[in-house]
Amino acid sequence: MAHHNLSPRQxxxxxxxxxxxxxxxxxxxxxxxxxPAISLTHPITLIAAVFTPWIALGIALLxxxxxxxxxxxxxxxxxxxxxxTAFGNVIVALFARFWLHEAISGQRWLGxxxxxxxxxxxxxxxxxxxxxxAIDSATVxxxxxxxxxxxxxxxxxxxxxxx
Amino acid sequence: xxxxxxxxxxxxxxAMIACVVLCSTVGEVLTAAAMxxxxxxxxxxxxxxxxxxxxxxxxxxxxxxxxxxxxLAFFSLLFALNHLNLSLVAxxxxxxxxxxxxxxxxxxxxENVDRRRWTASVLVCIGVYFLAx
Lengths: 163, 133
Fold this sequence. Notes:
The complex is a heterodimer.
Chain A: H1 8-33, H2 44-49, H3 53-75, H4 78-98, H5 106-123, H6 133-139, H7 153-162
Chain B: H1 10-38, H2 41-58, H3 61-83, H4 86-107, H5 115-132
Helix pairs in contact in B: 1-3, 1-4, 4-5
């Protein structure tokens, strides 16, 4: 059974996933470019960078992204959630054009259209793949009164090893 | 180009971006596998509360393995951003990660990456590239 319909709450979580990641990356970039060059011979300076304001704000946004992302992954496929994260680039481009009044080239508008179409493709498909458990249970009839966890392949193997 | 330091060579830039993409892909696949094994967080939260949902996540070894690789990807990204422009690192890493995750999702997570998802991955990949250049 494929899950086609997402609830408004689930769409909100996908929206948070899309928006917080590019904003966090932008804060990280602003913070890192103001720092002196970091060498691999002094990796501890990367840790110190975490406590600068822009990097800290970027990390806070990325923590929000991660919480939303984990929630989304619990009810949708990785290959369904990831294109949604790319939709954040479209949101940032629209902010830049209509809020900051930045010029957006034709090539960038083409990028916006391609990402929107790509996300639309995924969004109209099932959000979750059903694992082949249904096939196994169809070919091998489950024992009567078996507990639910006995249907998994791992628990079946464990049972065999115990015997 | 307004690079913060002297620009690294082609292979050094490629290695930095490849490191971000590889760590990110491994981390995301492990995290996705962990979340699938845990189950729907909304259901867990409705049944056991927020503490129950947090406990379910932080007691998963796969989750910590995934977070470890995502942390590596994060510090690789910081290192790359210190040497390369955001307009190069962000789109290159984001678009390549989409494709590598589609491949890894099909192989390791057994996700149904059908023609629709491949098309979406490629369209988004090209779109991210155009948007950043």
